[in-house]
Automatic annotation (TrEMBL):
Name of the featured protein: Sulfur carrier protein FdhD
Coiled coil: none
The keyword Cytoplasm belongs to this UniProt entry's keyword annotation: yes
One Gene Ontology term from the biological process aspect of the record: Mo-molybdopterin cofactor biosynthetic process
Active-site residue numbers: 107 (cysteine persulfide intermediate)
Annotated Gene3D superfamilies: 3.10.20.10, Cytidine Deaminase, domain 2
Compartments where found: Cytoplasm
Family membership: Belongs to the FdhD family.
One Pfam family hit: FdhD-NarQ
GN (gene name): fdhD
UniProt keywords, alphabetically: Cytoplasm, Molybdenum cofactor biosynthesis, Transferase
Entry function: Required for formate dehydrogenase (FDH) activity. Acts as a sulfur carrier protein that transfers sulfur from IscS to the molybdenum cofactor prior to its insertion into FDH.
GO cellular component: cytoplasm
One example GO MF annotation: sulfur carrier activity
Length: 263
C-alpha cells in the first residue's frame, strides 16, 4: 500500500442505530502540474503515486512525445506538485492553445483537453492477438484481486495491462484516465510493446476510454461494466475488440469478436 494514496481521518458513523466516533480512509487528490520545456502544459488531478509513469503516459497520449528517446529529463517535485519535463524537441504549434488547463479527476466535460488531438493520435489497431474465454476471465479476476485499495475506500479506478499469459501490470488512480496513462507510461519507460496487449478496466467503457485505448495502441479492452453506444461504434471503426459485463464466468463481446477463440 502506498501511504500517500490514503489518509486516515476521524469520522462519525451511524451504525446499528447509534452515532459512533471512528476512523475511515480517504483517497488523496493531488494536483500535478506538468511543465514541458519550462512552459506549463497541464495540471492533472491524480493519486500521488507512479507520477513519472503518469506524466509519460499523459504526454504520449496527447502526442507531445512519440518515443521515450524524445525525453531529455523528467523530474518529479512532489513537495510542490510539479513534473519538470525537458524534451529533445520543441512542442508543435497545435499545443499552444492547450496549455494551462486543469485536467480534473472526474469524467465528461472536464476532460475536454483530450478531444483536441484525438483524431490525430488515436490509432486503428493492428493487433494480431487472439484470446480464449479462460484468459479473459482470468485477467479480470487478476484485476479484482489486485484492487485492495478500491475495496478499502471505494474511491479509486483500477486498470491493468496484460498479454493474457505471463505479463500483468496493475495501476490505480482517482482518475480513470490517469490509471491508463500510468500503464502507458510504464510500458514506454520499460520499452514494452503495447500492440498485442490487453487493457483491463474496472469502469464503464465510455467513448473517452475507448479513445484512450486507441491512443495507447492496444487491440482489446476488457471491463466488468457496460460500454456506451458511441464506444462500441468507435471500437468497430478502430479495429478494437471491446468486451464488457465480465462477471460470474460470462461476458459480452461488442466488437471484433474474431479475436476470441473457443478452447
Amino acid at each position: 500500500m502506498n501511504e500517500d494514496v490514503l489518509k486516515d481521518q476521524p469520522i462519525v458513523r451511524y451504525e446499528n442505530g447509534e452515532l459512533v466516533n471512528t476512523q475511515d480512509s480517504y483517497v488523496t487528490e493531488f494536483p500535478l502540474t506538468i511543465m514541458v520545456n519550462g512552459e506549463e502544459f497541464a495540471t492533472v488531478i491524480c493519486s500521488p503515486n507512479n507520477m513519472e509513469e503518469l506524466t509519460l503516459g499523459f504526454l504520449a497520449s496527447e502526442g507531445a512525445i512519440l518515443k521515450y528517446n524524445e525525453l531529455k529529463s523528467l523530474q518529479i517535485d512532489d513537495s510542490k506538485g510539479f513534473a519538470h519535463v525537458e524534451l529533445t524537441k520543441q512542442l508543435g504549434t497545435r499545443f499552444q492553445y492547450s496549455t494551462k488547463r486543469m485536467i480534473a479527476s472526474c469524467c465528461g466535460k472536464s476532460r475536454e483537453f483530450y478531444f483536441q488531438n484525438d483524431a490525430a493520435i488515436a490509432k486503428t489497431s493492428m493487433s494480431k492477438i487472439t484470446l480464449n474465454p479462460e484468459q479473459i476471465l482470468s485477467m479480470m479476476s487478476q484485476l479484482q484481486n489486485a484492487s485492495a485499495l478500491f475495496k478499502q475506500t471505494g474511491g479509486l479506478h483500477n486498470g491493468a495491462i496484460s498479454d493474457g499469459q505471463d505479463f500483468f501490470e496493475h495501476r490505480q488512480d482517482i482518475g480513470r484516465h490517469n490509471a491508463l496513462d500510468k500503464l502507458y507510461g510504464y510500458c514506454i519507460k520499460n520499452h514494452i510493446p503495447v500492440r498485442d496487449k490487453v487493457l483491463i478496466f474496472s469502469g464503464r467503457i465510455s467513448s473517452e476510454i475507448l479513445i484512450k485505448a486507441a491512443k495507447i495502441g492496444v487491440g482489446v479492452i476488457l471491463s466488468k461494466s457496460a460500454p456506451t453506444t458511441l464506444a462500441v461504434q468507435l471500437a468497430d471503426d478502430l479495429n478494437i475488440t471491446a468486451i464488457g459485463f465480465i462477471r460470474d464466468g460470462n461476458f459480452n463481446v461488442y466488437s471484433h469478436p474474431e479475436r476470441i477463440k473457443s478452447c
